[in-house]
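Schema walk-through. Below, the input block comes first and the output block second. Nothing else is stored per chain. Lengths vary across the set, and this one has 274 residues.
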Amino acid sequence: MLTRVFGPIINSSPALKRAVWGRWYQFLARSYKNEDWTFMNYGYANLDGGDSAPPLYLQEGDEPDRHSILLYHRTVGDADLRGKDVLEVGSGRGGGSSFLARYHNPASMLGIDYSESAAALSSKRHTAPNLSFRQGDAENIPSPDASFDAVVNVESSHCYGSMERFLGEVVRVLRPGGQFLWVDMRPRGKFDETREQFRGAGLGMLQETEITGNVVHALDLVTDRKREAISKQVPKFLMPYFEDFAGVRGTRVYEALKAGDVQYWRCALQKPTD
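--- output ---
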């Protein structure tokens, strides 16, 4: 919705980009408080002969969100979060942080989101002894230096005003040797710029994989469920915008991903040990 209406203006102004996306997510959290809606990402599905997430057993209550959860599971990959202090930047409605806290067993799992309403909703909806949420800006993370062993960022960084400032904050709050686990989309040919931003921040690339096909396959599998949920919860005049935001089949976002005009990347990076 926002990129369709304001795209050229937003892209020319980092401060406006950050403000507009922030207002949009505040609106979503305040207006749509259905506690069953806990994920906002496009999801991930395994492909025959392609990139695959590790096998994952889910509890019955988590099964309806399998593809959104699989995106987190693939993002973490073979990183061992057990007993670690983990931060998710851009935690949205909290489903991803909750999954990581319950299935990957970190010592602590903190989710921060620019939207105060989203952070409050997450705190109400998700409870686990090692899990907490708070409001926080990706470009000014409210945590001391060297606070975390891993930082997770899922389908969020394209909203930030300054990727360089965000990555500077990631490096600041990571402990030496800590990992940055990232997935997001970029226009075709623009990931080279993101790769250089990682390098400029001092992060070393451990793994790099394009997963566009997996994301499109997931969108195909969940389109009907998303359409049904939107039709039940959203006024009719807003439905096209919500469908575009959700990436359901046939929308501008979906078609751009399917055509490869927008590509989806997954990276595991590491802060140097000294």
